[in-house]
Fold this protein.
Amino acid sequence: MVNGDFNEILHPSETSKQAIIRSTSAMRVFGECLADTSLFDLLFQGPCFTWSNHQEIDPIGKKLDRCLVNGNWINVFPTSHCSFKAPEFSDHAPCIINIFTKPPDFGTRPFKFFNLLTKHPSFLDTVKAAWVEAGEKASTLCAFAFKLKLLKRPLKSLCKANYSEIEKESLRENWVLLRLAEESFFRQRSRIKWLAEGDFNTAFFHMTMKMRNGINAVKYLVRPDGSRVESAKDIHTYVVEYFEGILGSVKGQFCPQLHKFLESLNMPICSQTQQGLLLAPITLEIIKEVLSGMP
């Protein structure tokens, strides 16, 4: 745990500008120290500010307390996180470090499309066969979405049959193909865009993927009455009920002044030139130019 106010390194004789420059310099040095030692904040939950002056007039809150870990910690405890609680007798928020978080054991896993499939020789034939089997040409977004949905099963089968347990494959003739597929898989999972796909750094991808899984995991939800929903099944049920309550019913009352209020808003409007661009026909050259310009 690290506790220190790097924003309050002030001297009585300093002006506000000098104090800001001094504080900024101290934060920069602190950031460089963390970078040199390969330390970073462990995923945390709770209040953003861990210290307050407990003053009703001119209250101040700051993030002073941190739980710093390194890559070795994440490798050993990939699902760990810390929770800051409400302070009681101290002006600092207490922190509890959770070494292990139980993985989700409820619900089905969502379908994910991995880029490595596009490099398999049977990819295009598999997509074409499933697309034709799905029926006639899709002329509406609804029909298009339905045909896309029918692609999931054959793509999952193709992935499972050819890329399941990549690490255990030992055939020399498939080594290059499997190695590139494995790296592409972890590259997409870890969302690392600043590493070239040719850099075989699978161990780094593994660690980054574990970190992202820990960050994206829902540890608990808080009900309006302040109670927690913690088990995976209860979280699933609570989320469904919450959104059904929003999307499945009409709430609120009609406001007679709503029309005038909307008219009074200064909303941005497209210029004549922009409207002309939006109405211009979309050509194959425009599509190719946009796709080529994407990351």
Summary: The longest helix spans residues 16-36. Residues 209 and 242 are 30 Å apart (CA to CA).
